[in-house]
Amino acid sequence: MRPRRLVFLLALVLPVAGLYGLYRAAISEQPRIVHDQELGPSSLEQGRRIYRQFFPVWPTREPVRRVQLTTQDLDLGLNYLLGRTRQGYARTRVTGDELRLDLSLRLESPLHGRYLNLTLGFGPAGSRLQLTRLRLGSLPLPGALARPLLDHVLAASPAGEHLPLLEGMLREVRLGPGRVQLVLAWDEDSVRAAIDVVGRQLAGVDPQQLAAYRQYLMGLAVRRPRPDFGTVMGELYALAWQRSAQGDAAAENRALLIALAEIANGLRLGLPGAGALHLGDLNLAGRGDYVQHFTLSAALAAIAGEELADRAGLYKEVRDTHGGSGFSFSDLAADRAGARFGIRSTATQTDARQVQALLAGSRDTALYLPEVRDLPEFLPEAVFEGRYGGVGGAGYVRLLALIERRIAALPVHRRVTQ
């Protein structure tokens, strides 16, 4: 073979061989990192603690804020976000001189269903961290390629546009065994704006859809007489039915539930543009707090899934046994009914349209809320533990099964065969 032809063939074959080697080294059919930690009450307490480091209960004007995150904190946060967007799994390790991230990231077409496995290492560089190594599977990449590749991935992430802002606030990063300490020049409004946008992107909420339901709900403040909760739900789902005629019914229902939870609870669900109006006089089964339990759980389930909504409701009731109002099975029933309703309203386009058709124009709250007034409530910790065995006890399981049977029998959960 002539030398020139041999060089030509090598020029064709070597890049292909290199790409194939990279594929074999970095990509697998199963993730090499799997995170199977259950999202329980301790996880929610962990999340609450992290949140309070960023946003204390009492307003503060501290120009500098120190936030400490453990390896477990980082694992919980990364795996929740990756799991929520179905993008993969993560594992973190922190020593005094390195923050290591092991990732298995789900690939899209044409490699859909396969995973890119990579390891990133960050080490101290003065008061900051710098990328010290990047491995694709078992293949290390040189530093000249590693940093541009990481910058590209971060820029394409949901938080991409806000990373320069947050990086500008960062004054110092310190690594210790099992922990990372951040020192921030605090700008709370900027951080809330960044969280708002990322939260909206992760939730898959269209601001225009959200605005339509907010506008309706804000109009309730001037209506006389004020409609009851059943009427509000019937009118909201009639609006969703109309708006879904040529659109995404599940997305419309999700925006509806978020807007309703904002108004009923007087809070934002991590989304910008919510009005300050709080309709505290809405009642469900004769109680305003049932409206709050039901709507917040429904919105959480529609955004983040049924498990998180259920765990959040249980977590709140358990906390109430420690010096609060006590454990309430009736509140828990409203939470779980809301979570099931949020999933049913947004699971599929068929489910979404069936819920719209059932509720549109109706005032009947028995379509989606079971009987709750005969359930025990205001139980101090000693009574809850002694009479029901605490969470997981025989009495608790028996009452929880009763609640689940009541919810399952509700008209909204009877699927219509097409």
What is the SS-derived class? alpha+beta
Tell me roughly what share of residues is in helical segments.
Answer: 40-55%
Largest sheet: 6 strands, antiparallel
Whole-number mean pLDDT: 77
Which ranges are low-confidence, i.e. pLDDT below 50, for 5 or more consecutive residues?
6-23, 270-274
Helix-strand string: HEHEHEEEEEHHEEHHHHHHHHHH
Multimer state:
single chain
- The DSSP helix count reads 15
Please count the beta strands (DSSP E, at least 2 residues each). 9
Shape type: globular
Q: Strand-residue fraction? A: 5-15%
Question: Could you walk me through the main structural features you see in this protein, from its secondary elements to its overall organization?
Answer:
The protein is of the alpha+beta class and 418 residues long. The protein is built from 15 helices and nine strands. It has helices at residues 3-26, 41-54, 71-84, 143-155, 163-169, 188-203, 207-218, 229-243, 249-265, 288-304, 306-320, 329-346, 349-359, 381-388, 394-408, and strands at residues 27-28, 64-70, 88-94, 99-106, 115-125, 128-136, 139-140, 170-176, 179-185. α8 runs antiparallel to α9, α8 crosses α13 (349-359) and α10 packs across α12. The N and C termini lie far apart (68 Å). Mean pLDDT is 77; it is low at 6-23 and 270-274.
Topology summary:
Layout: H1 3-26, E1 27-28, H2 41-54, E2 64-70, H3 71-84, E3 88-94, E4 99-106, E5 115-125, E6 128-136, E7 139-140, H4 143-155, H5 163-169, E8 170-176, E9 179-185, H6 188-203, H7 207-218, H8 229-243, H9 249-265, H10 288-304, H11 306-320, H12 329-346, H13 349-359, H14 381-388, H15 394-408
